Amino acid sequence: TAVDPFDLVIFGGTGDLARRKILPALYRRFCAGQFREGARIIGAARADLGTRGYRAFVAEALREAAAEEAGDAAALDAFLATLDYVSLDARGDRGWPELAAKLTEDRVRACFFSVGPSLFAPLAERLRRHGIVTDRTRIVVEKPFGHDLDSARALNATLAAHFHERQIFRIDHYLGKETVQNLMAVRFGNMLFEPLWNSLFVDHVQITVAEAVGVRGRGEYYDRAGAMRDMVQNHLMQLLCLIAMEPPSKFDPDAVRDEKLKVIRALDPVQPHHIVRGQYVAAPGRDEPGYREEVGNPRSTTETYVALKVGISNWRWAGTPIYLRTGKRLVARSSVINVVFKHAPHSIFGEDAGQHANILSIRLQPNEGITLQVTIKEPGPGGIRLIDVPLDMTFAEALGPEGAHHPDAYERLVVDVLRGNQTLFMRGDEVEAAWAWTDPIIEGWESRGDVPKPYEVGSTGPTDAELLMRRDNRRWLGIR
Ligand code: BG6
């Protein structure tokens, strides 16, 4: 169903995120009929573009993002007609009265902070000072949400001085991914999995977020962040929470976020020998540069890869490790959660039949879907030999073309902001707890002067990550 008319202001409206993600997502939702007559989108940035200039910028952004197939020429014109633009200074007062004058009384005002984190506080203050904050104002804050626990606390405090928690939408776009929500549906919508979802039956869990790309022009930010801050503290932590949390009593924002928070607070501190850090280097015969060349910092010790063994000290998970790994410039783009079940307690088919384990694989990207490896008899007249076959819940096959179309995470999240639904957004205490767990790991590296292990572009990561598993008699399931 369509959302009521709203005013959506995109601060950083000419920036990279707005161009690549937010505006295409808005256009797709517009074409899907989700906006009612009168909805308005206002770009705000420093450049002196004017409304016509901004509409041209957006039309170009939609072409680049190949979003225009969502609608025809008439739809595009109608969408562009919803757009307006204000040139303003985030740190000064120029442009703010003009912005305030453009807003409509009595409707949802969503303010997207699609800007660097140093502007979050100035924007929040100016929204307040220029009388733009009403009860129906919401702000959307992108990562990075702080750099460590102290900075995240300070940021939460600044935002809390101007907004109620129910007005603050902290984005982790992984929560908007279709399969991530499906993970909750599979866990809590079926009888089949939940009774086995604990350390009695689950041997371990592997969460892999592998990327084939490098730092893509964001070297300056990335070199100060590294994979731990850029990916683990937020995206992998969220995936871990959804895998490990207790069933919330309902699918509502605080019920879900309370359960996630309990998981983060139950995480053990990570032992230094349970962490592998890596940094990519050029590989013979390939064109891609190594990380240090790519960011132009020949002495950088920033990690572009991390693998970790994580323990959760609670009744459900004690003794079942969760292995996390993420890295850039790996062999393929592939994000998968594998829940590896224990072996059957006894094989009646003898040793020759081999050891088999059920594995539930939740693939986030590409080729979203869920498969369950089950063991069956190899067909044929001989004795019983066991093989594994996938019970395949790949949506494209089960649901037809409709199932194959996955809305981008931002489409889902933008609509949730307009509707005021915070379930898929992080609460302030959750972000702080995640930093409280991450900080000692990073401080450990800094105090030991740790240098990441090199791994070649296009590989599966540093060999130490294989050792991390082998020491436990386990192995990573393939990245492809
Ligand atoms: C972002 C990180 O949050 O997520 C990037 O800053 C990373 O470094 C990106 O590339 C990955 O997102 P996705 O949706 O492509 O898996």
UniProtKB/TrEMBL annotation:
It comes from the Bacteria. Residues 9-182 form the Glucose-6-phosphate dehydrogenase NAD-binding domain. Gene3D superfamilies: Dihydrodipicolinate Reductase, domain 2, NAD(P)-binding Rossmann-like Domain. Transmembrane segments: none annotated. One of its GO terms (molecular function) is glucose-6-phosphate dehydrogenase activity. Pfam families: G6PD_C (PF02781), G6PD_N (PF00479). GO terms for biological process: glucose metabolic process; pentose-phosphate shunt, oxidative branch. GO terms for cellular component: cytosol. Keywords: Carbohydrate metabolism, Glucose metabolism, NADP, Oxidoreductase. Residues 184-476 form the Glucose-6-phosphate dehydrogenase C-terminal domain. The active site is at H235 (proton acceptor). HAMAP family: G6PD. Belongs to the glucose-6-phosphate dehydrogenase family. This is Glucose-6-phosphate 1-dehydrogenase. It comes from Jhaorihella thermophila.
